[in-house]
Design brief:
32% of the residues lie in helices and 22% in strands. By secondary structure, the chain is of the alpha+beta class.
Length: 265
């Protein structure tokens, strides 16, 4: 564990920290020359989530890989293509944590299979995974465990990647309707003044692999929008005091200025 974290509490549960946790998971940036955000962690909220990290991130990249195979992913950036290429040999190692689902195009003779996509197995608690990610960013902003945050009772998660059905094939309409319903919940925040999140210093990580933004709502919730590989989004909200929200805003402003300085060097 880094010396600066000695005597600190775990970013998520407040127990004594005995290890470091990368926020977001360091696997996202494998093969890239960049720094990473690190926070203090207990063993459970570090090593205990490593398999989830691998399954969720590999599932996203495997989905993009299937889109490429189907000829439906012509807008991927060089960084995303590099990420997919670098993890090709890792896909078999996490097959127990994800499923390949066939997506059908309606109206075709015999319901021809048009493409496949990878989804995380139902046993993977992606809701808690998203809360852990958000809690890590809040710790990075304040550099202390936030006892006021109740991640079990006062937080919610929404996404446009994970699917409830993992046993049967999906249709294109299934996917469209699912995303449409989820987007309805976010419509109220479309006009909000979102604040762009920060990256690591002094070598910021590629924002086309991961980035986030946040907004403090009128009902006293901090809303985070996490974006992976420019395609998959996860929204998390948690009840927070105005004072905590202000600390997060200040962190974003200060880190943004530092990132701009790093890019100019």
């Amino acid at each position: 564990m880094q010396n600066r974290f000695k005597g600190k509490s775990c970013y998520y549960c407040g127990e004594p920290a005995i290890s470091d946790e990368h926020i977001p998971p360091k696997q996202i940036f494998d093969g890239f020359d960049c720094d990473k955000i690190v926070v203090p962690s207990c063993m459970y909220h570090n090593v205990g989530k490593s398999f989830y990290d691998a399954c969720i991130l590999m599932g996203m990249l495997k989905s993009l890989d299937e889109f490429i195979i189907s000829g439906l992913a012509n807008d991927l950036t060089p960084n995303i293509l590099k990420s997919i290429e670098l993890v090709q040999d890792k896909f078999p190692h996490v097959k127990k944590g994800m499923r390949i689902i066939e997506i059908f195009q309606e109206g075709q003779p015999g319901s021809e299979k048009k493409m496949k996509s990878a989804f995380v197995d139902a046993d993977i608690d992606h809701y808690k995974w998203a809360r852990l990610l958000t809690a890590g960013l809040i710790w990075d902003a304040t550099e202390e465990y936030q006892e006021e945050l109740d991640w079990n009772e006062e937080s919610g998660v929404l996404d446009n990647y994970f699917r409830e059905s993992t046993e049967k094939g999906l249709t294109a309409t299934d996917l469209i309707e699912s995303d449409r319903e989820k987007q309805k919940h976010m419509t109220a925040y479309g006009a909000a003044t979102w604040i762009e999140g920060w990256s690591a210093i002094s070598k910021p990580y590629p924002r086309d692999l991961y980035n986030f933004r946040f907004v403090y709502g009128s009902l006293g919730h901090l809303h985070f929008e996490h974006t992976f590989f420019l395609k998959y989004k996860i929204w998390v909200h948690v009840k927070a005091s105005p004072e905590l929200a202000e600390k997060v805003k200040i962190k974003a402003l200060v880190r943004s200025l530092k990132e701009d300085g790093c890019r100019k060097v």
